[in-house]
Amino acid sequence: MRSDEEVKELQQEPLVEDRISVIARSGQPLARAARRAQHRLRRAASGELGASRPGSPSRELLERFFSEAKQAAPVPAVETGDLAVLRSLLLESDMLTAISAH
After folding, report:
1. Distance from C-alpha of 33 to C-alpha of 78, rounded to nearest angstrom
2. What pTM value is reported for the model?
3. Which residue segment(s) compose the domain that 69 sits in?
4. pLDDT of 44 strictly over 90
5. Domains of the chain: total
C-alpha cells in the first residue's frame, strides 16, 4: 500500500497480503545455490538487480527484507515498473528482480 502522504485524499484498505519473490532466469547461478541465504542474495544482486522505483510497494518490501536482516539493500542497476522490460533483462542476463510472484 502507498504511504498516507502519497494518497491523502483516498482511503486504503488491504484486500490481500502479498509476498515478494526473487525471480531469476533458469540457469542463473544463484538458482543453483544449495543455500539461498540473505548475504548470498545481496552479493548476487549487487549490480545485477532490476527493481521497482523507490517508494513502490514491492521496493519497500525488498528494502524491509534487508533492513530486518540488518543489511543494506542492494542498489538496483535498473529501476522500472515495466514487466516486459524486467522479463527481457532476466532472460538475457544473470539479473535478478524482486516482485510479486503473481
Report:
1. 24
2. 0.69
3. 20-100
4. no
5. 1
